[in-house]
Design a protein that fits this description.
- It is an enzyme of class 2 (transferase).
- The chain is mainly β.
- It has a six-stranded antiparallel β-barrel.
Amino acid sequence: MFTGIIEELGKVESIREGNEALELTVQASTVLEDVSLGDSIAVNGVCLTVTHFSSHEARFDVMPETYKATSLRELKKGSEVNLERSMAAGGRFGGHMVTGHVDGVGTIVQKERESNAVYYDIRLPDELMSYFVYKGSVAVDGTSLTVFGVKSNTITISLIPHTMEHTVLGHKGVGDTVNIETDLIGKYVVNLLSNSSHGKESNVTEQFLKDNGFY
């Protein structure tokens, strides 16, 4: 489990490509301070396992399913990546519940500065749109952010100067892709309302949620 609070920017040292698979070596420092083999580190929001490490770099295997479902396949040598260690049981929960399991890839379609903030409009696959609400949470390239707008196939997020400087999002612009993880609780709510996994009508309705303080 992660929180979406990026600990540092790493840099891709090398990439070995296989058949829809990758072996990534990433330069880092902070996330390697207490690392062990088999630890989980989120790389641009994707939970990956440390398979080798030294004092200044870590190696990860990216399997075909992850290769196809995320933007990691677009990385090149020298690319910067967001890094976050998995959350310690007694750690501070600074963002929101992030699993590191990416739901889809979005595309930045607009980037606009307003005062000290920069707003991004991100176009998303249609099947993800039911998971977003105004002022809900989303992880974009592993960064915990608030949703400030929801349209038919886009969401709007806003970055403060600190986030612009200390995450890869600050260097991305129109046409760039980002990994998207929707809110975990939202997934369960949508599943309960649709009850698609059981093929029968659910007792949890929109009115039930309103009556119990969820609206």
